[in-house]
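Q: Sequence in, structure out?
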Amino acid sequence: MRGATPAVAVMDGAGTVIGWTRAAEELTGYLVADVLGRPIGTLLPPGDRERPGAFVPRTGLTEVRRRDGEVVIVRAEAAPLTLGDEAGNRRECWLVSAIPAAVDLSTDTGALLESLISSFPVAMAIWDKDLRCVWFNEAAEQLSEGYPYYRIGRSLTEVIPGIDTRAVQEAMREVLADGRPTIDREARWSYRSQERALSVSLLPLEGADGRVLGVCSVALDFSNSKARDHLDLLREASVRLGSTLDVMNTAQELAELAVPVLADYVTVDLPEAMVPGIEPQQRLAAARAGSPVFRRAGAASVHEGMPEWLWERNETVSVPPRSPFTQVLRSRRPHFEPVLDTSPGTWLELDPDRARTVHATGMHSLIVIALEARGDVLGVAAFARTSNPAPFTRDDLFLAQELVTRAALSLDNARRYTRERLTALALQRELLPHDLCGSGAVEVASRYLPSDAQEGVGGDWYDTIPLPGGRIALVVGDVTGHGINAAASMGRLRTAVRTLAHLDLPPDELLTHLDQLMAEDARGFDATSATCLYAVYDPRTGSCTMAAAGHPPPAIVAPSGEVTFPSLPAGTPIGVGLGAFGSRDLHLPAGTLLALYTDGLIETRHADLDAGMARLGDALARAALRSATPEHVCTAVMRAIVGDAPAEDDIALLIARIQD
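A: Exactly. Output:
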């Protein structure tokens, strides 16, 4: 349509068509014979300057109704015209020209304006009242493959699989109805597995009389904008940072998140005080004179092989006293150097290794920020640019500070969690028996595996207790909860079991007394409960008496290799205070293998207890050969069921083989 000829018509003073060109036929679909002698009002609405008995055509943007019923937005121009001779036959007429608004070439200015708009890097389109596309520019054409409504004559009401236009239809109809624009409305659509984010504005297209004739849509694609990248980075940081509660992993996550969106090279250094098991270094700004000792905890680079890397992760990092790193630690204010000063006399002279790396990699912009949380300085993060020629801006500094703040809180949480976990694990291991004794009646072996879950160490335990007459008590239990409190409760419970065992109580009575003790010791919401399996084996009779308090049944491997899980009288967990327990006597011949365990060995998020017991039975059957020692059985069972996978819950396993 570029370069189209204007449609021209001539009307007399009453608005009757007396002249009609071929271009007018093409624009309206009406032939000359169809319109000559007819009022133009059927095609072109009259203007506001009507006078009785006179016709004044409308100019500017208006609508023309085609023969097929379609409405076309045009720009109309009109000029008075006098026809006839001077002999008294003069007639006052109008010469009207019209051209579609999309290709308005009525003036040189219009052509220039169209050229500018067409090449403008923002997708623009014009839609008529029926939501049909009547014009679009080159930027919109580039989006048309993924958004096929950018086609002349195509309506948004057409259904195209995979594209939902209901929201934009509703928005456009609101603009057509009230004439108020919609500005900066976010829209998303996907094409070829790529999601695009657009800022869409809808502007009313008004005619000369103020009526809304259509809508102009302006769509700005900001999918790859810097601001969007920063928002996506912060969104990802809120999900990833601290997800593992591991100090080293969190530091590495911070480095990887910032590359390449923010920086080309990032390092995260933590003081040795952050090493698990060591108290945190308090207030490094007031630390002793000299350089604090740091370890490289995280690093990432846009370059393969990281040529900027002077120290590998976990290695000790050198920090010169006059460097930006120590200044940041003392002042707790960020070091912002958009253009890195490498001239003589700077801190780099005191750090030749870093100076060589700076020159070799073209490092030209630097940000250093202290990792600070809850009053403690936990380390320092450095952001540098090498390949990206643009220096850091204040916006980049604010983004880096936000990332570091989030990472510091996650690091502090990880540090506290690690410290508490190690304390609970040390307490747990200290409270477990170090040297199990089978007292000649049985040969025993055990394993304890703490949970790798974020909830922390639990309260699983096992024990063997020699009793009068050569008998031996075997016990396994599991305290609810995790952490130091669960470990401490386990220690109290194990001590109580040993005390009651020396009273030579039957298993069911021992559990009853234990239940009463824990119920009396309950403290409201801090009350602790536990499951327990208590068994007494008498080598003189080969009898084993067992009682359980909400605990999984033992596994018994007969000398023939058959594995069974004997059912025991049901009992409530210890600490409930009901004291409803029963016992069962079983005969265990020499060579029988008895396995007591906690539910962490058989229960996972993906398998219930029955499936877990079946796996345990298979593992015991393969491992419990008559010549296999309990130690070998423990190792084989743990390898078969747990393997190298992280333990979802604490596991305690006690294996006892009946001696000949």
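Residues 46-50, 105-109, 277-290 have pLDDT under 50 and may be disordered.
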